[in-house]
Amino acid sequence: MIWRQRAFTLLELLIALALIGLMVALLFGALRFGSKAWDISEQRVERDTEIIMLWQYLSDRFREARDLSAHVQSEGETHHFFDGERDGVEFVSPMPAQLGSGGFYIVRLRKARVDGKWKLVLQRWFYHPEVLAGKADLPPWRPLKADGPYRKGRERPEQRAWYSESMLVDALKSVRFSYYGIQEKGDEQAQWSETWDTEKRRLPFLVRLEIEDDKGQWPRMTFELPGGF
Questions:
Q1: Do 76 and 68 contact (CB within 8 A), yes or no?
Q2: Per-residue model confidence as pLDDT tens digits over 110-119
Q3: Mean per-residue pLDDT for 85-91?
Q4: What is the pTM for the complete model shown?
Q5: Secondary element (H or E) of residue 191
């Protein structure tokens, strides 16, 4: 018996090539989609990590805020070290040893324009009479409301325990601080306010922070201060 081997026709060959091309296209499409999904997932993890780290750091600082007043020579009066505005806040809090000398620091958070971009800037001055008197060789400290626009200071490694600054949020679109506490002596109920004047000479109960950057709105952060409740 003679077996005859049947060959592929041109049409069958073209159909097979088309199916292989379709499978390859689907495979590469799935790979591209998977790679894009992975990148998006990594970006979300990085963003969530950034938010959590900032919340933890600020939560620790606000929770240990001190109700302090001191005579400020440049102002010629006693200054209470909690000053709150809509786009910035300043208070005194102890700093971990790895971030300073382990003593009390004047902590200032505010929206500032740096190198043409809006950012959330953290400045730290060592809470010391020479700093308050302007005698230390540092970027000068003045009360938040009297200081004017942010001026980038020059950090020196040997003076980092006395002064430092960090950019906490880049590409900032908006920031809003608000304060919950007894507005006037004799008030029976606490209220939210967009400012907290030094004349109150007491700490608010809570500070709320709302941030929006170029990637969208952050979860609202609320920080408790000592002795609030």
A1: no
A2: 999 988 899 9
A3: 95
A4: 0.78
A5: strand 191-193
